[in-house]
Amino acid sequence: MNWIEEQGKTKEEAIDRALRRLGRALREVRVEVLDENKRLLKLLGARGTRIRVYYHVETPELAAAKQIVEKLLKLLHVRADVVGRMEEETIYLDVESDSPGLLIGKQGRTLEALQYIATRVLESTRHERLRLCLDIGNYQERHAQQLAGLARKLADEVRATGKRVTAPPMNPADRRLFHMALRDDADVTTASEGEGLLRTIVVSARAER
Question: Is 51 helix (H, G, I), strand (E, B) or coil?
């Protein structure tokens, strides 16, 4: 991750200067305050704030993914801004729109479909396997927290009764989040069972296995 430093009379002014230098939006960067209300040389002894702004360089893969999602949204006649970053082998895209509910859909199914289509198109054009994580209105984070809460609830039930508990059917991405939520739990273990749309997760006491 790259970074630049900037300063201003206030934190807001310093951030605004940095964003104008980078040509980016606030949600595309991470801001660290280095000095606040300190005397800064460039401000001729006046008090101000010095910050460091971290940003990701746009890779060819990231640029291609953004272009694909933007085209999909245009086909849906939805106005939206797409920003993103690439970390290791995963491309993260965040969509900001006036119609988040339309793009997310019931239980996130429209978002899931958009992510699937974008991933397939991206892989066909780049001729390589890439992992794309598409988020709209911070839905993915909220959904992940809900899944983690469900996982902890079922784990508590297993601890209380000693009996296996089966979670509702989930897609592969949700099952992965569910497994991760309990992977460090010393009392229970998780295993996927079933096929296709009915594939789910069973939570069991570790002594049972």
Answer: strand
